[in-house]
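User: Can you predict the 3D structure of SNF family Na+-dependent transporter? Sequence below.
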Amino acid sequence: MNQKEFFSSRWALIISTLGIAVGTGNIWRFPRIVATNGGGSFLIPWLTFLFLWSLPLIISEFAFGKTARKSPFFAFRFFAGNKYGWMGAFVAFVSTAIMFYYSVVSGWAFYYFYSSLTGNLFDAADHLTYWNNFSSGYLPLLFHFMAIALSSAVIYRGITAGIEKVSRTLVTSLVAILFILLVRAVTLPGAIEGLKFFFTPEKEYLLDYRVWLNALTQNAWDTGAGWGLIMTYAIYMKKREDVTLNGALIGFGNNSISLLAGMIIFSTVFALGGDSPLAIISETGPANTGLTFIYLPSLFGKMSDYIWLNRIFATLFFMALSFAALTSLISMVELAARSLNDLGIERKKSILIVGLAGFLFGIPSALSIDFFINQDWVWGIALLISGAFIALAVNKYGVDKFRKNLLNNPDSDLRIGGWFNVLIKFVIPAEFIVLISWWLFSSTSWDPQWWHPFHRENLGTCLFQWGIVIILFIILNRLYNNYKKAGDY
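Assistant: Sure. Here are the predicted C-alpha cells for SNF family Na+-dependent transporter:
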C-alpha cells in the first residue's frame, strides 16, 4: 500500500473527481429523461435517490480507495475477503466496457465541436441527414481514436501533471461555459415556459413507479456512483483527506451541473422549438442522439438574429459537451490502467495496453449504431449490479466498523450517524432487488424473445454477457487465490 503520487490539494481532488461525475449523462441524457418522466415531477425522486443511493456509494468508494490504495479487484479482497475479488473485477470491467463505447460518444462531441467551430454544421439543410452521413461513414472511427488517444496521453503524464492539471482547466471551463449559455437561454422569449415545466411537479407522475425507477437509474448513471472510478481516484488522496465531505461535494456538485444543463436545454427548446417542444426533447433519435446531435444544432441557429453569434453559442455548447465527455473518459482509462498496474504490469505499459484495447474494442461501436446501442444497454444496466456489490463489500467488512473507523476518524470534517448503516444494510439492497425484479418481470412481459442472447436490447443479451464475464472472473479469482498466501490481498 505504498502510494507515491497524490493529488496536490483537496480542491484538486474535488475538481478531478467532479470531472468523473460530470459527463455526457448530465448534458446529453438528463434532459431527455426528465422530459419523458414528467418534468419537475422527476426531480423529486431524482433528488431522493441522491441521498438513498448515490451519496452512500460515493462515500464508500472514497473510503475503499483511500484505505486499500488499490484498484477495485484488490480493494474488494481487502474489504470483503479474498473470495469476493471477482466482484471488484466485475466493477472494473463494467466501467471499462463502457469506456469502449463512451470514447465513441466523446468522438461524436469532438466532431460536432469541430463542425460548429468551422461553420460546417450550419451549412447543413437537414441535420438528421447530416448526422446519418457522419455516423454511417468512417469519421466516427477517426474521432473515437482521437478521444482514446488524448485520454491516454493525459493519463501518461501522471496524476498531478496529467489528470489534475487537465481537470482543473476542463471542469472550470465547462462550468463557465454553461453559465454563459444559461444567461442566453433564460433570456429567450418563451424560456419561462420551459423553466416552469422543468421545476413544476405533477401528482400523477409522482404516483407512477416507473418515474421513481428511472430516477434511480439516472442518478446512478450521472453521479458516477458504483462505477469504481471514484474508488480509483481516491487511491491518490492524501492520508489526512476527509472522505465524507468530499463525497457530499461530488454528489451535490454533479446534480447542480445537471440542473444547470436542464435549465439551458428546456429554456432553449421551449423558446425555439415551436408547437411541440416536449416532442423535441424526448425524441431519442438514433442511439439516443435526437436532441443533442439533430435538433439542438437547428435550434442554436435561431438563438439570435446574428449568424455569427449563433455559431458561438453552438460552439460553446459542443465545447462543453466535449470537455464533459473527456474528463469522464480520462477516469475510465485511469481505472483500467491502474487495474493492470496493480496486477504487476508497469504503469506506462499498462496505459499503452489500455489505449490500444480501448481503440480496438471501440471499433464495433464506432462503425455500428446497433452494436453501440447493445453495449450501452448491457453495461449501463450493469452499473446497478456494481453498486449493489459495493454495498455488499461494506456489509462483509462490517458497516458499523466501516463507519466508525474509516468515515468518522480524526481526519473527518463531517460525522456520519447510524443512518448510513441503515442505507447500506437495508435500503440500497432493497432498491436493487426491487429495480432488478421489476426489470426482469417487464422484460419477459413485453418481449416474447426475451431469452435470445443476440438481440439488441433485451434481457437475454444482458444475462448472456454478464454471465460470461462473472463466470470468467470467478474462475480467475480462484486461480489467483491458489497462487497467493492466505490474507495477502
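The chain has a mean pLDDT of 90. The longest helix spans residues 307-342.
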